[in-house]
Amino acid sequence: MADLATRFGEIFGPGEPVRVVRGPGRVNLIGEHTDYNGGFVMPMALEAAVRLALVPHDEPTVTLWSEQFAERASFQLGGEPPADPPHWLRYPMAVAEVLAEEGVALRGFRAVLDGDVPVGSGLSSSAAYEVASALAFLVAAKVEIAAGPAKVAAEAHGLSTERLAVLCQSAEHRVGVRCGIMDQFISLHGRKGHAIVLDCRDLSYEPVPLPSDRAKVVIIDSGVRRKLTSGAYNERRSQCEEGAGRLRKFDSDIEQLRDVSIEVFQAHESALPQIVRRRCRHVVTENARVIQSIEALGSGDLERFGKLLDASHDSLRDDYEVSGPELDLLVRIARGTEGVLGSRLTGAGFGGCTVSLVRPDAVETLREAVLARYQEQSGYEPRIWTSEAADGAAVEV
Ligand code: NG1
What are the start-end ranges of the H helices in the chain? Predict the structure, then answer.
């Protein structure tokens, strides 16, 4: 990524000091489609991030230049929304709305927006963008906020980073996807060298060290961009809610699928319509896999953790039906490579990326296997990279 502060000068002209904020993308190691069921997830923040370089001003206007789209667009704070804003402008507009409703006194700014989190690939570019936008508003409103973790900027406005994650999640809901809390939360709370286990019901969380000397996290982009996702995603969410509602008849304490153990599910699954039963089976078993993964990582048993990743993919493919031929092919290639401990799709599915846990000396072998077979068999060009777990969002400058 170019030096954004310099880009600001090139786009808007030199002058006042430029502030830079950063919201990282994430990869979810395990716990897929459990967040909106009140369950557990285990994501890590990525080195890839969305950044905004901004200079606040006194007019109630936000003007953004997007490096990706080479396009400029503006909106008024508290005013009529622009008639037909570009899709990318809707995120900061929604963030401004939720922050204003929370009582944050907003101030306008001009900013250059850039990012290296691939869009539509299950690495949460939208959450990274919401979080970076929220930090931009917090910094613009109180320019004296020092560089440092998001916590400082949030607390300067009487907010916690937990609350900020919830606000960014509701911004995402306004743009169209009824997502869970995972992405915004990890973007704000990531910890270098660690994954985070998050209880999506009460937002308590625990950093889990990742032994990067013994296994690398390899992300492979299938090149398949997600289409029609919000419909299919929201449909899965409704099916889960229906399942929890039906199971509540057997136990009034069941609020969400998070409250259903594998035993209770097995005892009553015949009361569920076939598709709802499969969706629920995924969520109930996936939640259990996150708990087992904490134990496996805690005892250094990476083989077991890898097997749990494999089981997660199979469940997402067969019961949740959010995989596809290309993701399945990537997973098969990875599993056929010596030194790969486990591999699964990551994020919502329907295209996007896989995540694999790989012995350090096998990363290159996996890269070669994917380059040799994937494009020829799928017609899509893969992108392969490793990322260490990074720190969460911050005011950089
Ligand atoms: P991605 O793949 O980043 O869109 C989505 C949801 C998450 C979670 C996962 C599935 C959004 C922004 N996020 O992630 O909340 O439900 O799917 O585990 O839609």
Answer: 4-12, 87-101, 125-141, 150-155, 161-175, 182-189, 229-247, 262-268, 274-298, 302-318, 325-335, 363-378
CA of 28 to the centre of ligand 1 (A): 9
67 lies in a domain? yes
Per-residue pLDDT of the chain (397 residues; tens, 9 = 90+): 559 999 999 999 988 899 999 999 999 999 999 999 999 999 999 999 999 999 999 999 999 999 999 999 999 999 999 999 999 999 999 999 999 999 999 999 999 999 999 887 789 999 999 999 999 999 999 999 999 999 999 999 999 999 999 999 999 999 978 889 999 999 999 999 999 999 999 999 999 999 999 999 999 999 998 765 678 999 999 999 999 999 999 999 999 999 999 999 999 999 999 999 999 999 999 999 999 999 999 999 999 999 999 999 999 999 999 999 999 999 999 999 999 999 999 999 999 999 999 999 999 999 999 999 999 999 999 999 999 999 999 999 9
Which residue puts its alpha carbon closest to atom 19 of ligand 1? Answer: 179
Residue 186 lies in a domain: yes
Kindly give the distance from the C-alpha atom of residue 118 to the centroid of ligand 1, in angstroms, as a whole number: 14
Ligand 1-lining residues (CB < 6 angstroms): 32-33, 35-36, 122, 124, 126-127, 172, 177, 179-180, 182-183, 347-348
Residue 335 lies in a domain: no
Q: How many domains does the chain have?
A: 1
Task: Write the CA distances from 369 to 311, 328, 332, integer angstroms.
Answer: 22, 15, 11
Distance 372 CA to ligand 1 centre (A): 30
Answer yes or no: 183 catalytic.
Answer: yes
Structural domain range at position 187? 4-209+390-395
Report which of 26, 25, 44 is spatially closest to residue 293, judged by C-alpha positions.
44
Atom of ligand 1 nearest to the CA of 31: 18
Of 183, 221, 310, 319, which one is the catalytic site residue? Answer: 183
